[in-house]
Amino acid sequence: MTHKTVVLYPSLGVGHLNPMVELAKVFLRRGLAVLIAVVDSPDKDSVSADALARLAAANPDIAFRLLPVPSCGTHKHHPNPVMRTIGVLRVANPVLLDFLRATPDVDALVLDMFCTDALDVAAELDVPAYIFFPSALGDLAIMLNLPYYYPTAPSSFKDMPETLLHFPGVPPIRALDMVTSLQERGSDIAEARLSQCARMMEARGILVNTFTSLEERALKALSSGLCTPGRSAPPVRCIGPLVLPGNTGGISERHACIEWLDTQPDRSVVFLSFGSLGRFSTAQLGEIARGLESSGQRFLWVVRNPPEHRSSSVEPDLEALLPEGFLERTRERSFVVTNWAPQSEVLRHQSIGVFVTHCGWNSALEGIASGVPMICWPLYAEQRMNKVHMVEEMKVGVVVEGYEEGLVKAEEVEAKVRLVMASGDGEEIRQRLLTAKEMAMDALKEGGSSDVAFAEFLTDLQNRTCASKR
Ligand code: UDP
């Protein structure tokens, strides 16, 4: 194969950048040069310059370029983080164009699902563009169908919360479990997201961070045209699971929580971690603490300040945030980490028995790739949809009651922890996870479904490049 350079263009935030870095490694293994163009955004939800520098240091074979976005524009102050992201990416388009013009031999662009505006840049330069979809294939099936479905829905999703919606390839889904940004029909954000859904059809192909045997039904619906009636979707290729390796970030020392896990019995620890942005009110933290205490189980818990402390960089004051005496009473069987844990490494540890997760797709895949049963507690974005796939389709976890109302009670936390850790139903889920873990490894092996799908994508890229150079 001729030497190629592929430019990867992630959306803002750790949950989008991390899987792009893992994708970059796949390109490298196949002998392609790869460059990740990262929009330099001051938004508080974006990856910090320090974190990016660490990532670059840990991955010296990958070229990272920061694209500075102009500081003008109303997007900066939009109260909604998704609208801020969309605004920043829009302002970044001309910067990306200039950057690509100045970069020799770019053979393809791989755009995060939020970066569909950059399809215009690809068209202007006549570079083939592919979408990288870092969420579940079930979400893609829904999102490609939404431009058809949305106009015919009887009302805004928020006004019919319990109505079951039927999309091809996925279980029925309550309107309240649809992605947050699409809840209000006609809102700026819903319109912007719908346009992104529709524009994915313009890509030359869609790479999805999942594997075929995990989401067979969704793949069938997509490839048989059920999701996009009257039109063929671009080829959809499942190339995952691309998850962070156990030891990341170039940190050579082991995190203290890993040392603690080493001293715990196999499959005995409840691990609670809620993505890069998840935060709870003090009341909810109290309920979780009481539930964990009365469950009697060992636990490792990542605790952050409540949302109202958000702008402050102050370390959480655990004594003040958690119920009085809780830390002392559970000291023998718990480890509380503030703000950030090496999640992927934790999940691979043999002492982890269950993962309480917000259902971000990276977290879900990390749980699956580690064979750990999950307790699903969706918080924002598309996590409620992921919860439906995880609980009803893949059956890799159970859901906590009360997430819809914004407060999960201590008794519910205790009940679900006990169910997974100490019941026949929990054992059944564990066995299913062990199978899913095997299937994930098989997909990535040479000749496995994800390996083959990636090779097919490269053949397509090669054909396109040869055709355009003729
Ligand atoms: N993560 C981590 N430590 C934490 C919280 C999150 O390493 O304390 C990582 C996690 O392993 C995952 C990513 O951050 O790779 C979060 O991505 P996900 O899609 O699960 O959720 P998001 O943050 O996008 O909502």
UniProtKB/TrEMBL annotation:
Pfam families: UDPGT. CDD domains: GT1_Gtf-like (cd03784). InterPro entries: UDP-glycosyltransf_plant, UDP_glucos_trans, UDP_glycos_trans_CS. Its EC number is 2.4.1.-. Keywords: Glycosyltransferase, Transferase. SUPFAM superfamilies: UDP-Glycosyltransferase/glycogen phosphorylase (SSF53756). One of its GO terms (molecular function) is UDP-glucosyltransferase activity. It is an enzyme of class 2 (transferase). Belongs to the UDP-glycosyltransferase family. This is Glycosyltransferase. The lineage of its organism: Eukaryota, Viridiplantae, Streptophyta, Embryophyta, Tracheophyta.
